[in-house]
Specification:
With 409 residues, the protein is an alpha/beta fold. The protein contains 15 helices and 13 strands.
């Protein structure tokens, strides 16, 4: 089921729902009713009730179907409610008896629904969970490090080189803790550009079923001589299919806690993984050059972002490989896109070639070049923006504390 085009609940992947009940035939009625709901989008997995099972907090909702064996269902519900963290617990009852409803609520159910499912009641209950999660994610996005995503729909604009050099600029010029993640999973160009041969890749985050933690993340990162860290694309092309948007989202949430900046190379291929990165990004940059094809693709990108409904982020444009006397000017591109260009990166193929052939980075080869200075300027704008955001958050907290103190005095 494609994630593109779904903008119902704050995340493209929808709510993750466990459907728990004895026998496939009993779950089928509920599964079909849930599948008919238009909003929110649901990703449903089915399982038999096991009171000894450990709650899987990666799910948003666990729906327990009471289909006759009430004691087993109650035991399962009670065991799940007694452990933290756990998903929201919904009890789905055929029997409307007050006694059973009391027992279900005392066992820890967060919500009662009755079978056959009423679409309105089910939608209301699920949207409550969806909106609660969306608010948590918005709060999470405002804390910790800054995630910056770069993408293009057309090849040759220099997304990978810009992502790597932006990370290096933040490290060299501002001494920030920086990581880059390669979501161009089939190409894997970041490792090549940084002259690294990583032993472990993002596949280490996709292995197993346990909740991701910082130890697992740190073991998957490769350190560059500059001090930045790379989470590399899989070594084998076919392994890219094993990396899910849930893995990408959880990984970025962890990386935000460990680094001041996380730079994401989204490449030129848009899928659920890249959208997961955009949703967590403080900045989303579309990289284009001075060509008609690039301008047209930029329009298509803007249209897609609008249809995805990402209210927390507005894409900005970076004009890469800029040439001053080019027939297609920056002003023409700004007019076509109805938006000014955020940053301009000059074209300098000779320096980039020297960087690759020497196995050194831009600041070792040409630290005072216009190319290096333009990327430092972009890094400076990001750093100033982060300081302002952090300051606003701090001031907001101080203001709230002062208001409380004033109210008590």
């Amino acid at each position: 089921m494609s994630a593109l085009g779904k903008k119902s609940d704050g995340r493209h992947g929808g709510l993750r729902v466990q459907l728990v009940g004895e026998g496939e035939e009993h779950r089928a009625e509920v599964r079909d009713a849930l599948a008919a709901l238009g909003d929110p989008i649901l990703n449903i997995e089915e399982l038999e009730p096991n009171p000894d099972a450990v709650p899987d907090a990666s799910f948003d909702v666990s729906m327990v179907v009471f289909n006759g064996n009430d004691e087993l269902s109650l035991s399962y519900l009670n065991s799940q409610a007694g452990q933290d963290p756990h998903p929201a617990l919904f009890a789905l009852l055929h029997d409307r008896s007050p006694d059973l409803m009391k027992r279900v609520l005392r066992a820890g159910a967060d919500e009662l629904l009755f079978l056959p499912l009423d679409p309105g009641d089910a939608t209301r209950a699920l949207l409550k969970i969806s909106e609660s999660r969306r608010r948590e994610e918005v709060h999470s996005n405002s804390a910790g490090g800054m995630i910056v995503s770069l993408v293009s729909l057309i090849g040759g604009t220099g997304v990978t080189s810009l992502a790597a050099n932006l990370a290096l600029a933040l490290r060299y010029a501002f001494d920030k803790r920086v990581a880059v993640i390669d979501l161009d999973l089939q190409t894997g160009g970041l490792a090549v550009f940084l002259n690294l041969e990583p032993e472990r890749t993002i596949m280490a985050m996709a292995e197993g079923t346990r909740k991701l933690d910082s130890i697992q993340l740190e073991s998957a990162l490769s350190k560059h001589a500059s001090g930045i860290y790379l989470l590399a694309a899989p070594k084998r092309i076919e392994d890219s299919e094993l990396v899910s948007d849930a893995t990408v989202g959880a990984t970025l949430d962890l990386m935000r806690q460990l680094f001041d900046f996380v730079i994401v190379d989204c490449g030129t291929h848009i899928d659920a993984n890249t959208v997961a990165a955009w949703e967590r990004s403080s900045h989303l940059f579309y990289v284009l050059d001075q060509s008609i094809g690039a301008a047209r693709c930029a329009w298509r990108f803007v249209d897609l972002v609008g249809r995805l409904g990402l209210p927390s982020i507005e894409p900005n444009f970076i004009l890469s490989r800029y040439v001053a006397n080019h027939p297609i000017t920056e002003e023409q591109l700004s007019h076509t896109l109805a938006k000014s260009i955020h940053s301009r990166i000059p074209r300098d193929e000779k320096i980039l070639e020297r960087v690759q052939l020497s196995a050194q980075d831009l600041w070792q080869v040409a630290p005072n070049s216009p190319l290096a200075k333009s990327i430092e300027d972009l890094a400076r704008r990001l750093e100033v923006g982060k300081q302002t955001t952090d300051s606003d958050s701090s001031n907001s907290l101080v203001s709230r504390l002062l208001n409380v103190i004033g109210a008590r005095s």
